[in-house]
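tool=predict chain=A
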Amino acid sequence: MFTGIIEELGEIVAVTPSGDGLRMTVGAPLAVSDAGHGDSIAVSGVCLTVVDRGEDWFAADVMKQTVDMSTLAGAAPGRRVNLERATTTGGRLGGHIVQGHIDGTGEVLDVRPGHQWQVLRIALPGHLAPLVVDKGSIAVDGVSLTVSAASVPDEETAWFEVSLIPETLTATTLGERAVGDRVNLETDILARHVQRLLAFAPTAGAVPEGGSR
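tool=predict ok
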């Protein structure tokens, strides 16, 4: 479990094929300072398991499903990534509850600079649009953010906006994002549970199995 508060900017130093997935090595002095074999580290929002580590790096296996649905599909040495260690029991929840289980990717549609901030407009798959609400929480490349605007249901392209403060621009990779870039998205876990529950809700007026009116 994570909170979406990025602790360190790491760098991918090696990517090697591993079956139908890949093994990725990430330079991460802070993240590995207290990491052990089997620990979880979120890499740009994707929860990965430490399978090997050194003084300033760790290696993780990325399975095919994760490669296919995340920006790790194009991972290459030199790419900077957002890193967060799993939160500890009793730690502060500075962002929101983030699992590191992304829903898919979005595309940056617009970057609007302000005097001290920057607004990103990001397109997202239509099936995720109902899970994104104005002033709600979303994780973009692992960064906990507040939605500052969202598309209405009848728009052709579903989108949302986030406003980035100077700290976010410098402490994460989001300050480097440009139009056309793809980012990892994780919607609010509470919204996903509500959507799932509603999908199984009985039709109004229906009699539950074994029940009576």
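DSSP finds three helices and twelve strands in the chain. The longest strand covers residues 8-18.
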